[in-house]
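Retro notes - structure team

What went well: the batch runner handled both jobs without manual restarts.
What didn't: labels got mixed up in the shared folder, which is why I'm recording both outputs here explicitly, each with its sequence directly above its tokens.

Job 1
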Amino acid sequence: MTKLNRILLGAVCLLTACTGPTGDNGLTPVDYVNPYMGNISHLLVPTYPTVHLPNSMLRVYPERADYTSDKVKGLPLIVTSHRGRSAFNLTPYQGMRESLTPVVAYSYDNEHITPYSYSVYLDEAGIGVEYAPSHQSAVYQLDMNQEAPAYLILNSREGAMKVNGNVVSGYQQLENNTKVYLYLETEQAPVETMVLDNGKTDVNRKETVGNNACVVLYYGEKGGTLNIRYGVSFISEEQAQKNLQREINSYNVKTVADAGREIWNRALGTIEAQTNVDDDKRVFYTSLYRCYERPVCISEDRRYFSAFDGAIHEDDGTPFYTDDWIWDTYRATHPLRILTEPVLETNVIRSYIRMAEQMDSLWMPTFPEITGDSRRMNSNHAVATVADACAKGLTDFDVEKAYLACKQGIEDKTLAPWSGKPAGWLDQFYKEHGYIPALYPGEEETVPEVHPFEKRQPIAVTLGTSYDEWCLAQIAGFLNKPDEKEKYMKHSLNYRNVFNPATRFFHPKDKNGKFIEPFDYRYSGGMGAREYYGENNGWVYRWDVPHNIEDLISLMGGSISFNQGLDAMFNEPLGKSKFEFYAQLPDHTGNVGQFSMANEPSLHIPYLYNYSGQPWKTQKRIHTLLHEWFRNDLMGVPGDEDGGGMSAFVVFSMMGFYPITPGLPIYTIGTPMLSDVKMHLGNGKTFEIEAKNWSKENKYIQSATLNGKALDKPWINHSDIMNGGKLVFVMGNKANKIWGV
């Protein structure tokens, strides 16, 4: 037995010992994952059936528009960007040499996808495909029919490829300064190798560069089984080879898939979920699987390529993570990791700090990707992940440096959405007046930092920055900076500057302090309401003050008026036909009245009844919304699922609680959708949630105890969870309107 074999065997034994719980029916957590859930969109594309190991660099899915597509374009090798197509392409082909093309669109059937494997039958071609990934490498088995000449085509969309016997290597140029490299071996030696250029083969050439750089391996006049293994890298072809050799030493798809299955069970087994409703359990574990899709670890043998400065760095033993759309994930995905994966979450924050250090200015990232920080969306919510970690005792990182990077990213970078430019006039106005000024319909934009399509989003930015500065205040308090804490706490009230007391909505103002009139909170703001809000309309942003809900209740006239406003949102009609509404607001799907279940700014809204004396309505809403919009079927996700942004909401909500305000060590209670949950925490303790009398109908909490003591408030502290123990709900089918008030 080789040393590598002993290492792999030891790893498999260790993982087997840590495998997730097996249910009465013999199924383990990963067996409940349905990667197809949400593959057909209500409007936008919500999910792809992604095959990968948890937070790993190598991810693939079939290259097609969505599940309804009749063709797949070749076979994938690595997806480098969420919702992106595969870098490189692998195409098995049988037929005339004159008909070779860089990529073949295949008719397919009998596709089966798990988180750790992919199989499909290319029916017209008669080719069977089996696939399994490791972290930075993978294996394919291709069973080609015996009736025609057999070829293997490898293509780089924009880059270079070369072939040397049974080895293919090359790179593909991505955005900015980033390349992804490939090293691939076939077990069977080809009869002949060649370059394919403009539809013509050249057996005398073994290298090619440019668009659709393509090499071909010929395996003879009849097909058979062709085994392939490959490694990928963002550093070099040599590193891609090392990654392969470190992880995979055979061509056995089952061996690699079995190891991946154990890894997934260990990750998903951090939360044991029990229910007698099989589909609910599948929704839960599928949602938890989606929380591990990103960010991805791109450290390779303790080194990593950073697109943030275009250099290769030593990681000094701290893995480097990127590809995290923070605007989506700060709300629930990061808080979930604090509970179950604290080491991973710490390394993610450490990675943020490194990114900030590597960029031209020490600014925290907003949308870190493989190719750098794309600065998408609005606000600077990496500060929320730092504040939440500090509030919950996760501080094994340079908090001072993180605070400085957060502060400079908010104060020195422009607040204009989708921009990484320095602060300008718009930002100075915000500092002086406490809000982002809006333009009147048709008024010309003169601020150069403003994106021509994304606009100013003045309400979204004012509210988001108010929260961000509240987060800065929390970190300043942690660092014992009382003057700075006081300054940012004052700024955290800036949302008041755009509150219209006459309508009780957040309402855009011009630079002279006048509200824009006339105004419609459903439709004003153009495409995606971006001229005033952002992807969602004024009804959704009416509630976007997660850091000071008590004050929001006061602004709206007290608890009764606040509850009436919540009720009105869920009952307010679209006001237009669906095709007109969604033509303007395509992200604002999953509607219940003006509420949008499909976009992240809405996620906390159903929980707000807890703060205004009607927690039973939170229980009713959460139960209804989850069953309406998150289902174990192809349309079971209502909108974009951005790296766990929406799925973490499902995970928390099905357990029965939610982190409504990252930065506060508090979770507000909804209603449990599972009969029993055991969270195996990062500190080694276990927190259990039991729902007595639970059923589909029994959605209302009648009473609750925490560690045997009566719990009569609709929230629990972070310490309540981290200390371990047991939360017990007694459920019923009619609301107890007294509990939790």
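Job 2
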Amino acid sequence: MRFIDRANLLNSVLLAIPSLSAAFYLPGVAPSSYDQGQNVPLFVNHLTPGLSRDDQVYSVFAYDYYHPAFHFCRPDGGAQDVRESLGSILFGDRIRTSPLELHMAQNETCKAICPEVMFDGRSSQFTNRRISQGYTINWIVDGLPAAQLNFDQNTNTKFYNPGFALGDVDDAEKPFLNNHFDIIIDYHRVTAGKDKFRVVGVLVQPESRSDSRLLEDGTADCGTSGNVLILDEDGDTPVTWTYSVYWKESPTAWATRWDKYLHVYDPKIHWFSLINSAVFVVFLVGMVSMILLRALKKDIARYNRLDQFSLEDLDSTSAAVEDGIQEDSGWKLVHGDVFRCPEHPLLLSVILGNGAQLFMMTGVTVAFALLGLLSPSNRGFLATAILLISALFGVIGGYVSARVYKSFGGESWKRNIIMTPLVVPGIIFGGFFVLNLFVWAKGSSGAVPFFTMVALLLIWFVISVPLSVAGSWFGFRQSAIEGPTKTNQIPRQVPPMSGSLRTIPSILLTGILPFGAIFVELYFIMTSLWTNKIYYMFGFLFLCYGLMIITSAATTVLLVYFLLCAENYRWQWRAFMGAGMTGGYVFLNALIFWATRMNFGGLTGAVLYVGYSALIGFVVFILTGSIGFFASWAFIYRIYGSIKVD
């Protein structure tokens, strides 16, 4: 019973972390206070795909709110773009002004947004398809997304789900369009000399009303609920867009207004996954420690004891020495080759430098998000922070790459300096650019504009590249990291490997264990990413990231130890590829997610999904591979420094 109470207490603490994150706002993100009757701007964003009724995702394309086929009303004088952050643009946000009028604390019933519009057959067909695919409309009021009220049966709680349905399908699977919107806005009263009001929640209840119309006196008749509006794909369909506004005073403080949006889906699964991963890691680390400590302690003692025999004692103690020499096998026999330069040292050092950069960037970003410094109230700030932190840590990438390459004995230092900031980022940017061409050709609003691409190139070449060059210059000025044993001039022959120590089986077995530590959290990240939901469970993510680091290091060290015992001193690439295979499993998991949750009707959507998943898997490959390599390097340096070698 006491264990259950402690578990509930820890559960409450971790679940409170996102709430603390939501309540923390960066300097400069100040609340907006309104007088009664003052205009409150309502901005519109792109339409995004979501889960359909059969719990499938049918598209990865977002569409501009003012796409001609939707026939949404435009403001007088045309829609104006709203300034956005770099990360917001990269994630597809296209925020613009709207003709909807909101006045603080003033209810308004049944207003027409604009005169009647006409859907032709082609527009009706396009819109009906988007309705069947579960597309959602996204509005923004005072920085808060307009949401629909959802009920979670697992936790018996109500929460705000950002976005609301473009339409729905009836019992006959025929789509109908939502053309009336009841906007319910929660406000909080702030008394500071005179009454001021702040927006703390936005709900939208969309309805389909075929009998809504604009009257001759300019007022609107919003019709009745139940008479759904079905767009005729063979002819013209008149549509009148209407809305009502209802203001409701709320005790919710402005600092905690995001709490109702940030909902943990099925927290029991998160906890079971976290506990399972933690137990697995403890078991793995304990097993590795037991194997290595017992075996290494025995080996080191035996090797050092054998070194005490002098040549003069060989005749008198021939039998004992013969027995000892026969036992003198395994990892000590390769002491003269274990620090030998690996194949393709330049490429490996470049990749490891970028891996160190990714490791630092990921750790700092997740830590900042955990502390609430990357609040969801500042749209796109998480992506912007990732870009800027990664660029600033270019100095770490250059330094690590140079130190590793110099320790390998490399001489092409100019090529190392040039390749470190260009090869891996170039692969990522090139893949992103090619995939963006597919998005642009599809006419999606998610296509990154030309000037945003230019901004990315400027961050890359103006910030990251110079810092990487500076880090490389400083790294090459440092002394090389020399091993505790000397390298023989003639390389030792590597015996053939058998069983699980062969290349492919060892890589597959090493990579699957770290993937198991992040599998469940990865599922929630994938769901949030492809269904355009807010992911904010950074407390769980931080713990999973730590478990992944420990698992990657432990499994790779164990692999390298078994390789050395089999007298295989070519551990560098094997360690990197073994831990890096976690990225391969991430990509394979994405393909399984595609087979079970995705249902793309065209080739373009499949290409985009596979392409972006491959980029994510490649980044994880570089990250986990570098963790495994450096853990193995430290392990080898430690054990060979503990033996006496003539």
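One thing worth noting from job 2: Residues 1-28, 310-328 have pLDDT under 50 and may be disordered.
We'll revisit the folder naming next retro.
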